[in-house]
Amino acid sequence: MAEGHLTYSVGDLRVAIEAASAELLEGAELDLPANADQGGLVIRNPNAPDPFAGMSIDLEGELPEKVTALLDKQVNPMLAAHGGFAQLVGVDEHNNVYVNMGGGCQGCAASAVTLRAGIRKSIMEALPEVTEVIDATDHGAGENPFYS
């Protein structure tokens, strides 16, 4: 192994981590993806930084306008890095927000995590009047744009 790395063995798997990154990965788990069709391994890191920390957005108007502004100014710039976007479908009488995911997010194996840990979290924290955020995307429609 290269100098300055820590090594760990889990069964036959050997993992090398740069020593300077070890503290940032404390408590992280190396796991298989939740979706069996997705290959590779995933790292579940409780220390992952919040990419929205420190952002301040003026959210004015009725709830649909607030959600749209939040998606446009905070969420979509992050999703665009992966070729995706989210858009408001509607808000019902119980303040449930319906979101459609498109581009690279439609059909992506990680879209459920993106919705729950990114989009939903952002909306629920910024707009406490929202009851729930619901994925209205037809992920099975057409070809899988993420992998095409």
Keywords:
two-stranded antiparallel ribbon, 148 residues, 23% helix, GMP Synthetase, Chain A, domain 3, alpha+beta, elongated
Descriptive overview:
- By secondary structure, the chain is of the alpha+beta class.
- It folds into 2 domains: 40 residues, no CATH class; 73 residues, GMP Synthetase, Chain A, domain 3.
- Helices cover 23% and strands 26% of the residues.
- It has 2 helices and 7 strands.
- The strands form 3 sheets. A 3-stranded mixed sheet has the order 5-6-7. The protein has a two-stranded antiparallel sheet with strand order 1-2.
- Helix 1 packs across helix 2.
- The chain is elongated.
- The two termini are 37 Å apart.
- 18% of the residues are buried.
- The mean pLDDT is 81.
Number of discrete helical segments: 2
β-strand amount: 25-35%
* CATH architect. name of the largest domain: 2-Layer Sandwich
Structural class: alpha+beta
SSE sequence, one letter per element: EEEEHEEHE
CATH superfamily of the largest domain: Fe-S cluster assembly (FSCA)
* Count of discrete domains: 2
Span of the ends, CA to CA: 37 Å
Mean pLDDT: 81
Query: In the CATH scheme, what's the topology name of the largest domain?
Result: GMP Synthetase, Chain A, domain 3
Which CATH C-level class of the largest domain is it? Alpha Beta
**DSSP summary, beta strand count:** 7
Low-confidence stretches: none
Sheet having the most strands: 3 strands, mixed
What shape does the CA trace take? elongated
Give the helix proportion (percent range). Answer: 10-25%
Rg over alpha carbons = 18 Å
* Biggest sheet, spatial arrangement of strands: 5-6-7
